[in-house]
Amino acid sequence: MTDANSRPALSSGAGVLDLLRAFAHDDAAADRYANDLAGRARTIEPTLKAFEYLPAQLAPRRPGPLSGVPVAVKDIIATSDMPTTNGSAIYRDHVPAADAWIVERLRNLGATIFGKTVTTEFAWRHPGPTVNPWNPEHTPGGSSSGSAAAVAARIVPLALGSQTLGSVIRPAAFNGVVGFKPSFGAIPRVGVHPLSPSLDHVGFFARRVDDVAFALSLLGGTSDADRHGQPVPAFQVAADSGLDPLKAPRLTIVRFEKWSRAEPEQQQVFDAAVATLREAGAIVHDADFSTLDRSAWDTINTIMLCEATAIYAELVERYPDRTSDRLKEFVTAGRTRSAYEYLLAKKQQEILRADFAVQMAGYDAVLTLPAFGEAPHGLSYTGDADYCAPWTLLGAPAVSLPAGLGKNRLPLGVQVVGAYREDFKTLRIAKWVEQALATDIGRPGVAV
Length: 448
Known about the structure:
This protein has 448 residues and is of the alpha/beta class. The protein has helices at 16-24, 29-48, 101-108, 145-152, 169-175, 209-219, 264-280, 290-318, 325-334, 339-359, 389-394, 423-437, and strands at residues 51-53, 70-74, 112-117, 158-163, 178-181, 201-206, 250-253, 283-286, 365-368, 398-405, 411-417. It has a single domain (4-291, 350-447), classed as Amidase signature (AS) domain (Amidase signature (AS) enzymes), CATH 3.90.1300.10.
């Protein structure tokens, strides 16, 4: 028999289900793994800058279905034992009185809260210091910058993010990891600092579709304190086998009019993915989503501007020296929108949701882009959310999957979108796509 202490360390690239299988056969593996990751974080963080806060010592492991799994938490999500800064100087030393709903659930499931990841200011556009682990001269995307980078750099196997426009899907694509935005309302946002309550989603970053599916199966729920809650139908994911992929799905390809703006390499990777999926048995058709394409951006921005201004106008007035120009400009723009415009946008949102349900008849999922190409150069601009915003507006589940590399050897992805509240089906399709593409983009430079 092999001594447990002589067993090799788990790979830093192990996924959540890999870890749970290993921990089930080796009681000491979880502690060794956590210590290895803590050391890895100390080595990489001076370059990566993915974390706003890392505890000096991890909390003792607790029993549960996620026992021993380290989870990083975006820093707009409240933690009672760690600062929650919201990416703002106003909250630099703020430690909430209580955990967010999802953090409390994670702890009860046995997960280890590894640390707080960098977010843009209040999950809007003023970026933090995090760099892209594939090339530190490029953005990791936003607003869930640190969470995406931490998973890509193999510091943690699972991280929480949020999305109001494209803040899970786009950073996942830029960092070459799996990103999952569940249906709107699937996870209570109690204790998550709001940007736009009609649009805010909690999501996940991981290495494989199985891992984000397992996370939602445990973390979906409802709370009386979140009036937008609409839990998805319950499902289970077996830790030993993962999801059963939905074979030969019926996919509708959505390029939108903005397709011409996508980088040539992104277009090529996407078209190659479509061809591969068709050869693997998918039934593939192009579809016309022109109404959604034309109206989604104005609609979502009107809703977001109005709701965010109601939240942040007073804060900007009280703390002009501790709020960014981007936030001030955001509030100024929101003040130009009337209540009538807001109500029209909310009505249009409902119309588009109803239309989407009709358009999805006969299809299992949409296949589209997650971004226009590689992560932009520099850290001041976190990327364009145009290919994410329509699906966020609809509240539809969306998954970003790595699909290749661009001209600068930075990751490119594809996005799978499902019908509202059909998260389980969407994830099964995403796993089939993941298996059919069999993409191996390697490891980012900072993670070698």
